[in-house]
Amino acid sequence: MADVFNRKYIFLEKELPDQQAVFRFIAKQAVALQLAKKEQLVLKALEKREAEMSTGMQDGIAIPHAISSDIQQAAVLFVRTTKPVSEWETFDNTQVKQIIAMLVPADSTQAHLQILANFATTLIDENQRQALTNCQTAAEVYTFLTKEINANID
């Protein structure tokens, strides 16, 4: 779990006005964290997936993901924006403020894919989504998500 999600991958109170700004931020962080080599390739993979179907869920949460041979290590980045992100389609028409970005190498192992899937499973429950929203610090977000994700591992 520690190799896929850690406190360095949590970004709170970011001013990202639209989906494109969010994707650019994620791509930039992927390179800065040495998870990928080229921002443009991560950005392209995020956009490609989003063009297939919106990754917006409900209650202001989106789970964009990118699968690319440029991504060197599977990772999950958590981003919370200061204001709702415009133009991001969700199931319930709420505006996105919390983003859980999944970065997956093209040759990723099944174990990595399962850990990434556990993030989505956790957020199916309305109480879990609210609990995540109530987390105020990076430490709280990290503790909540790692506890819930580990609970979903069989």
UniProtKB/TrEMBL annotation:
Highest taxon in the source lineage: Bacteria
GO MF annotation: an example: protein kinase activator activity
InterPro entries, per database record: PTrfase/Anion_transptr, PTS_EIIA_type-2_dom, PTS_IIA_fruc, PTS_SugarTrans_NitroReg
Domain PTS EIIA type-2: 3-148
Ranges in coiled-coil conformation: none
PROSITE patterns: PTS_EIIA_TYPE_2
GO cellular component, one term: membrane
Keywords (A to Z) from UniProt: Phosphoprotein, Phosphotransferase system, Sugar transport, Transferase, Transport
Keyword match Phosphoprotein: yes
Keyword Transport: yes
Biological processes, Gene Ontology terms: phosphoenolpyruvate-dependent sugar phosphotransferase system
SUPFAM superfamilies for this protein: Phoshotransferase/anion transport protein
Name the record gives this protein: PTS EIIA type-2 domain-containing protein
Record organism: Liquorilactobacillus satsumensis DSM 16230 = JCM 12392
